Amino acid sequence: MLFDFIRTNFVKTLLTNKDNMDKFIIEGGNKLKGRVHISGAKNGALALMPATILAPGTYHQKNTPNLRDVWTMSRLLSSMGIFCELNENDLFIDSSGISSFEAPYDHVKKMRASFYVLGPLVARFGEARVSLPGGCAWGPRPVDLHLKGLEKLGAEVTLEGGYVQAKAKRLIGAKIHLDVSSVGATGNILMAATLAEGSTLISNAALEPEITALARMLVKMGAKINGIGTNLLEIEGVGELHPVDEENIPDRIEAATFLIAAAMTKGTVELENVNPYHLTSVLTKLEETGCKLDVNGNNILLEMEDEPLPVDLTTAVYPGIPTDIQAQWLAYMLLANGTIKITDNIYQDRFKHVPELQRLGASIEIIENIAIVNGAKRLSGATVMSSDLRASASLILAGLVTEGKTEVLRIYHIDRGYENIESKLTKLGASIHRVKTELF
Ligand code: EPU
User: Fold this and answer.
1) 11 has pLDDT over 70
2) Which of the residues 140, 234, 377, 419 has an alpha carbon 20 to 30 A from that of 176?
3) Residues forming the active site
4) How much distance in Å is there from the Cα of 47 to the middle of ligand 1?
5) Which residues lie below 8 Å from residue 215, measured CB to CB, with a gap of 6+?
């Protein structure tokens, strides 16, 4: 009933293919003050959505962020015959009518998380054809662990014409050790193993909260999974799963980005709808820089009065510091008086924001996977270019504290992963304006 109502009553424009080259104009110098509601996790939604392939029927996924990557996943699922409708933050999916087992290059090249459909498709239909994602803006991001895992589960995996083709009558449980604790490979193999015959053990599985959220949804769907929240997942395959309604977790990276923005502007900001537990490592680091934090249920209040103390940062798998806040931390440390070492151990080359921050006056040197920041240099407004999602976030943060006007180009990258970032920042007192230029 609800689905029929939604189908007939909401005509959405967000699933169109419109591209844009919008830019932000930011006047630096305003302190951020007030409350901000944190959206549902982008990377949570991108894992929960393909899980609907595993069982036909209707799903309601609450707290789904209304952003470009979710639209891209919706389009991909729609191209396979799955009905997707995003009404504000309520995502309705009907996976009863899957008619294609293919993820074309057009979708996958836009978003690597498209690769998530591979595991569930082979598990349920015995076949899948998914384009290889290729490189990403900051370097190679292989999918070998996803493929090895599926092969271990008995799938016949071949590569042809840039596509991965996987086939299996029925997947068979196996012991799979991930040489690197990969979020995507864990998610893909976990989804596949739920419908395999017999038991599967995934060791060195990713512990990221988005994977735990996926595992919890799968259990609700009827999957048998032990060890959720640990790096050893034990899955006993079942014959079939059933659809469920689920609530997505809050976005810990968006939360961290707003906390850093508040600290940079010496502001006072309260985040609502967060899971402070997911942010433990980040909150500790923020305290080391001199921020005062008050955690109250699902809210976090941050107050900052001075320039930050210099604090080194090294990214690691959860519960370590996420690589997805490395760029924002780097922008933060531009304000600290000292030399700061920022090491990315997850992605060795994820420093595309550095040359752009240098255009604003930052002094940063890159040695392999380490950025060395000489902080407290004068930053003055300039035109800078976004290269990827988190790089764009770091440029916006820098713009908030830069003297004069900063123009951030190619902000479609930020639209991939932050819901209404400019209206949230404006509500907190920032001067940030979107200049629209639409290309069709
Ligand atoms: N890796 C391999 N082989 C594989 C897969 C991964 O060697 O088959 C390596 C990667 O090269 C990397 C490490 O494993 O060095 C971790 O990569 P992972 O597979 O965990 O990353 P992912 O699943 O592709 C997710 C997030 C990223 C986030 C990383 C790390 C989603 C949709 N994406 O990517 O999010 O940076 O985990 O935490 O969940 C972002 O939101 O901006 C973003 C890039």
Assistant:
1) no
2) 140
3) 136
4) 13
5) 190, 225, 228, 233
Phi, psi of 228 (to 5 degrees): -60, 135
335 C-alpha to ligand 1 centroid (Å): 29
Residue 248 CA to ligand 1 centre (angstroms): 19
- Strands 292-296 and 268-272 come out as unpaired
Angle at 197 between CA 224 and CA 195, to 5 degrees: 55
Query: Alpha-carbon distance 393 to 415, whole Å?
Result: 10
Cis check for the bond before 319: say yes or no (omega within 30 of 0): yes
Ligand 1 interacting residues, C-beta cut-off 6 A: 42-43, 46, 112-113, 141-146, 180, 182-185, 206, 210, 322-324, 346-347, 389-390, 417
What's residue 74's pLDDT? 97
- Positive or negative, the Cα torsion across 295, 300, 301, 304? positive
Whole-model pTM above 0.85?
Answer: yes
**pLDDT category of residue 18 using cuts at 50, 70 and 90:** very low
